[in-house]
Design brief:
The complex is a heterodimer.
Chain A lengths: L10 E9 L6 H9 L5 E3 L12 E3 L19 H4 L4 H17 L6 H5 L1 E6 L5 H12 L10 H5 L3 H10 L5 E2 L7 H14 L5 E8 L4 H9 L30 E9 H6 L6 E10 L12 H12 L11 E3 L7 H13 L7 E3 L2 H4 L6 H15 L1 E2 L22 E2 L4 E8 L3 E8 L4
Parallel strand pairs in A: 4-5, 4-6, 9-10, 9-13
Antiparallel strand pairs in A: 1-7, 1-8, 2-3, 6-7, 8-14, 11-12, 13-14
Helix pairs in contact in A: 3-7, 8-14, 11-12
Chain B lengths: L2 H14 L20 H15 L5 H4 L5 H13 L1
Helix pairs in contact in B: 1-2, 1-4
Classes of the chains: A alpha/beta, B mainly alpha.
Protein name (chain A): 3-oxoacyl-[acyl-carrier-protein] synthase 2
Catalytic activity (chain A): (9Z)-hexadecenoyl-[ACP] + malonyl-[ACP] + H(+) = 3-oxo-(11Z)-octadecenoyl-[ACP] + holo-[ACP] + CO2; a fatty acyl-[ACP] + malonyl-[ACP] + H(+) = a 3-oxoacyl-[ACP] + holo-[ACP] + CO2
Enzyme class (chain A): transferase
């Protein structure tokens, strides 16, 4: 990005929070991910036996110390029923991120310089389902006064701001499965433009309910062939893949203007190195041949990276949903990287946690930061027989040790919306 | 205490997440028990459901304390 509007303001990540099918907690999720564990199992949130897709990545219940979800550790009991599950999961990740960052605004100026941008792809689907049953059974007057604020997507941002007194920009992104990347990218720009010094940004999703699974089944988007072998169901690029696996959870980062982070001695996970967007203008659910939209999003991310080239990028966390579109993304990545594709590692972590829809891009951006920090590329599980060959190392089955200074994460959503974000090692 | 009073108290404890000892007859839902305006709407709905009574909006607005709720419901049930 050029011009005076940004005043050269750099944006770094100083806090991370994850709620995933592998664990509640960014570090435990990461540990289990690089061990090759899978978070996919038979659906227990409801009885899925009437539906063709019966497996998903559900957040495990259990003690917080063991990586399970104990909701009362995050949301007071009396407030829980005022929020859909996607808000519960979003708050759990956001609270982790804020506490990890150590940022506590001390005065009104600080509070006004701290904003929130946490979105969701779908929002309170189970709440809407339950509410419509109440109305259709003739009890419209009994509909809870919390029905609307429970279902609204921007209410994670709302609740978080109330909890911590964050009075800066309060916003929420809704771009289906690209939500998480758009939230982090757009929030970074708010910091670059001086609208805030700190932004808490990310995405959350909890659509593993009968309406959500039935809807994606009808769109023929979900895997139906591995109901008896759930951990094998999500298999990006494999020739036997047959659809995506729904996951639930949330990913949230604390973004901070570099000098602000330095002044308070904050721990820095990495820097936002670039961000690009595009639209397909093609079809509501399918990308076009060659996935030109993905190509243009990656190109746009590089264009405003301050001089990075494809040779600098060591790792791509692919959108890679375990659908036919995987190979179209592969086409676009190969074309974009050209000769540099040979030295690239690319994996799809959806093989382990499923597709977290509006949370996916945020969780995957956090994985990129952890990969940079630890020098480890997470694996693509179940890639037994690639549907087609590629010069790109897709990190089948087991994690790899590799020096990673720069990583790129792709997310694409229904409607033909594409976003790419570059995360890089922080250097003075 | 009447059955109605017991049941009202139980609903208040459940919906507002407050300690039973705080739910005294004179306790105000908003001033003493931490409710906001949406909480009071939901409380009234819960009373309607539990006691099979209709509480019109103008009556609901006058129910500010635990005792107000008990009195209103007892009157409706006696009628």
């Amino acid at each position: 990005m050029s011009g005076t509007a940004t005043n050269g303001r750099r944006v770094v990540v100083t806090g991370i929070g994850v709620v995933s099918p592998l664990a509640v907690g960014a570090e435990l999720t990461w540990k289990r991910l690089i061990e090759g564990q899978s978070g996919i199992g038979r659906i227990t949130h409801f009885d899925p036996s009437e539906l063709p897709a019966q497996v998903a990545g559900q957040v495990p219940d259990g003690p917080t110390a063991e990586g399970g979800l104990t909701l009362s550790d995050w949301v007071p009991v009396k407030d829980q029923k005022k929020m859909d599950r996607f808000i519960h999961l979003g708050l759990a990740a956001a609270i982790q991120a804020v506490e990890d960052s150590g940022w506590t605004p001390e005065d009104e100026d600080d509070r006004c310089a701290t904003g929130v941008m946490i979105g969701s792809g779908i929002g309170g689907l189970q709440t809407i389902y339950d509410g419509s049953l109440t109305v259709s059974s003739g009890k419209a007057r009994r509909l809870s006064p919390f029905f609307i604020p429970s279902a609204l997507i921007n209410l994670i941002s709302g609740h978080l701001s109330i909890r911590y007194g964050f009075k800066g920009p309060n916003h929420a992104v809704v771009t289906a499965c690209a939500t998480g990347v758009h939230a982090i990218g757009d929030a970074s720009r708010l910091i670059q433009y001086g609208d805030a010094d700190v932004m808490v940004a990310g995405g959350a999703e909890a659509a593993i309910c009968s309406l959500g699974i039935a809807g994606f089944c009808s769109a023929r988007a979900l895997s139906t062939g591995s109901n008896d072998d759930p951990t094998k169901a999500s298999r990006p690029w494999d020739k036997d893949r047959d659809g995506f696996i729904m996951g639930e959870g949330a990913g949230v980062v604390v973004l901070e203007e570099l000098e602000h982070a330095r002044r308070r001695g904050a721990k820095i996970y990495g820097e936002i190195g670039g961000y690009g967007m595009s639209g397909d203008a093609y079809h509501i659910t399918a990308p076009a041949e060659g996935h030109n939209g993905a190509f243009r999003a990656m190109k746009a991310a590089l264009r405003n990276s301050g001089g990075l080239t494809t040779a600098d990028i060591d790792y791509v966390n692919a959108h890679g949903t375990s659908t036919m579109a995987d190979d179209l993304e592969l086409d676009a990545v190969e074309r974009f990287f050209g000769d540099d594709a040979k030295r690239l590692a690319m994996s799809s972590t959806k093989s382990a946690i499923g597709h977290l829809l509006g949370a996916a891009g945020a969780v995957e951006a956090i994985f990129c930061l952890q990969a940079i920090r630890d020098g480890i590329v997470p694996p693509t599980l179940n890639l037994d027989n690639p549907a087609r060959d590629s010069v790109i190392d897709r990190v089948a089955h087991v994690a790899q040790q590799r020096k990673i200074d720069v990583a790129l994460s792709n997310s694409f959503g229904f409607g033909g919306t594409n976003a790419s974000i570059i995360l890089k090692r922080f250097k003075d | 205490m009447s059955d109605i009073a017991d049941k009202v108290k139980k609903i208040v404890v459940e919906h507002l997440g407050v300690d039973e000892s705080k739910v005294t007859p004179d306790a105000s839902f908003i001033d003493d028990l931490g409710a906001d305006s949406l909480d009071t709407v939901e409380l009234v709905m819960a009373f309607e459901e539990a006691f099979s009574v209709e509480i019109p909006e103008d009556a609901a607005e006058k129910i500010a304390t635990v005792k107000d709720a008990i009195d209103y419901i007892e009157k409706q049930k006696a009628a």
